[in-house]
Design a protein that fits this description.
3-stranded antiparallel sheet; 18 helices; alpha/beta; 402 residues; Rossmann fold; 7-stranded mixed sheet
């Protein structure tokens, strides 16, 4: 973004993995000064990706930690706690996603941090919240996909439940955390003194399925897995074309059905009494598919896309990432940025176009402890103190990160 609107906001990022790092990065892309506090072992996401860049940094870490600075700090050490106290005392936001109780054991639960900084926005991201019987249970995106009901909705009709193949819940929780932090920062403008925020993955998952959950509470009926079909519409699904590509097509209204039939040159099928309304088409889906599936299979995807788009029918190719990058017009509509890392040509910025511009990469994802000396100086520690901290192993820089 051209405007670094949050440039006066300092965020202490005590997170690892996906949800917390993405939330902190989103604030960084809005202009916040984000200080990532990293332990000697490092953010575990540095070593979990199957695609590594320059040995240590994983593609996943690069994607979720741009525009931050990194201080290597042993928070379990008494002096490390004193350093963190100063960082918290001079910051606006603290984000953590450790298991409930960990921040308290370190000496930095909400009450302690509020005593250090009354105006602090304290945001935790957890699996099931900070209290209750589930709070201490281990949780991850995959486990929450299972327990929240997401996997019960994903998969082919009559088939086994399936996991969504990216960290859907983590990203939803991260976005909720960013919304909450911005809400709290706005509230401070009216004289409020900070906030205690918790975002649970479980709550974030269920919130995305609010319609499905409400239908269940209203009817008592669990929605069935649909696969690529939309059980509320017909025709609506994924159709294979002659060149092996798949198209997603959805006929939304009855007037679109007439246009769909004209586009596919289906003659009088639009007036067939079995298909004249959406309810009838859903009821007779199998018969309708027997007609249109072979038709889609007889022509390449480009032919059908041209016809359907000309008829204003909802449609699109089922793309891989390679398909997206090979489509200049589509890529031009996306917030693709240079992550400033060799051999990594693109990453995805926030999907917010603000005054005509997306966020830019100001700094690449940091190495462990890359900015330790710089951050210590910025928070008022002298060069002699910084050197002593390094000698004692309280802080570390890339030279002694391992």
């Amino acid at each position: 973004m051209q405007e670094r609107i949050l440039s006066k906001i300092t965020v202490i990022d005590m997170t690892e993995g996906v949800a917390g790092p993405y939330a902190a990065m989103a604030l960084a892309e809005m202009g916040a000064n984000v200080v990532k506090v990293e332990r000697q072992a490092g953010d575990w996401s540095r070593s979990t990706d199957h695609v590594n860049v320059d040995g240590e940094e994983s593609a996943n870490f690069i994607a979720l930690n741009r525009n931050k600075r990194d201080i290597g700090l042993d928070v379990s050490h008494a002096t490390g706690k004193q350093i963190l106290e100063r960082l918290i005392g001079r910051s606006d936001v603290l984000i953590s996603n450790y298991r409930p109780g960990v921040m308290g054991k370190l000496g930095f639960d909400y009450e302690r941090c509020r005593a250090l900084n009354e105006g602090l926005v304290y945001c935790t991201i957890s699996g099931f919240g900070q209290d209750g019987e589930y709070a201490l249970n281990p949780a991850s995106d995959t486990i929450i996909q299972a327990m929240s009901g997401v996997m019960s909705l994903v998969g082919e009709a009559g088939g086994p439940p399936l996991r969504v193949g990216f960290p859907l819940i983590d990203m939803a929780a991260a976005n909720a955390a960013v919304q909450a932090v911005l809400l709290a920062l706005y509230d401070r403008l009216s004289g409020q003194s900070g906030a205690n925020i918790d975002i649970s993955l479980m709550a974030a998952a269920l919130a995305m399925m609010s319609g499905s959950y409400t239908r269940f509470t209203a009817s008592g009926k669990q929605a069935a897995r649909q696969g690529n079909q939309n059980t509320n519409l017909a025709p609506a699904g994924a159709f294979e074309t002659s060149d092996g590509r798949y198209l997603s097509v959805a006929v939304l209204r009855d007037e679109h059905w007439i246009k769909f039939c004209a586009a596919l040159e289906l003659g009088d099928l639009a007036e067939d009494p079995r298909f004249v309304t959406n309810a009838l088409r859903v009821e007779n889906r199998a018969v309708l598919d027997d007609i249109i599936v072979p038709m889609f299979a007889a022509q390449p995807a480009a032919v059908w896309l041209e016809r359907l788009r000309a008829a204003d029918i909802l449609c699109g190719p089922i793309n891989s990432f390679a398909d997206i990058t090979a489509d200049p017009a589509l890529s031009a509509a996306l917030p693709l940025v240079d992550p400033l890392v060799p051999n990594v040509p693109q990453a995805v910025a926030l999907p917010i176009r603000f005054n005509g511009r997306y966020a830019e990469t100001v700094r690449r994802a940091p190495a462990k402890g890359e900015h330790t000396a710089e951050i210590l100086s910025e928070f008022g520690f002298g060069a002699d103190e910084a050197e002593r901290f390094l000698d004692e192993g309280v802080v570390f820089s890339p030279k002694n990160a391992d």
